[in-house]
Amino acid sequence: MTSDELKALVRTVPDFPQPGIQFRDITTLIGHGPGLAAAVDELAARANAVGAQAIAGMEARGFIFGAAVAVRLGIGFVPVRKPGKLPVKTIGVDYALEYGSDRLEMDPDGVSPGHRVVIVDDLIATGGTAMASAQLLRMAGAQVDHALFVIDLPDLGGAANLRASGVAVQAIMEFEGG
Fold it and tell me: Which domain holds residue 164?
């Protein structure tokens, strides 16, 4: 499937979660078998091209795409979780949201020091979660210099922010606005 065909599978929900927002809903893409397979294939090809040794995905939708990419490549998957979800000692990082803050955690033994870990997620908007994930993975000793997304919302600046932190960004598709 082409990028335009995949883009056509993403539903736009106007005024969610608040007036003026054009929410890009991937549930229609992941519910379409050939579309999901094509998106995973594209992400896997890009991760393979940059020498991924592991894939990291952020809870929750990053688990969908990240785990599928890791399986496709035959490499490990590193879950980056919300607080309190892991039964072992974790490392964590707090990060700012538009209105407040949040935290991400991971098992520090989930990566091998020096391994190239590629971040995979469904969408990059402001980049806060992806930047916190890169920081967290680097704290654990991973080399993080690439991130892959199904969707980029370039008007919100997340990809540019992530690039400024030393992480190359690629996306299968872009949507204007937020």
Answer: 47-174
Sign, CA torsion 5/172/117/79: negative
36 part of a folded domain: no
Domain count, the chain: 1
61 labelled catalytic: yes
- 1 lies in some domain: no
Whole-number pLDDT of residue 178: 66
42, 72, 81, 98: the active-site residue: 98
Cis peptide leading into residue 60 (ω within 30°): yes
Burial of 16 (0-12, 13-18, 19+ CB in 10 A): exposed
Q: Which of 61, 72, 103, 116 is catalytic?
A: 61
Tell me the CATH number at 152. Answer: 3.40.50.2020
- pLDDT by residue (tens digit) across 36-89? 999 999 999 999 999 999 999 999 999 999 999 999 999 999 999 999 999 999
Strand order from edge to edge, sheet including 54-58: 76-80, 54-58, 117-124, 146-152, 168-174
Average pLDDT over the chain, rounded to whole? 95
In a domain, 72, yes or no: yes
61 neighbors 121 (Cβ within 8 angstroms): yes
In a domain, 105, yes or no: yes
98 belongs to the catalytic site: yes
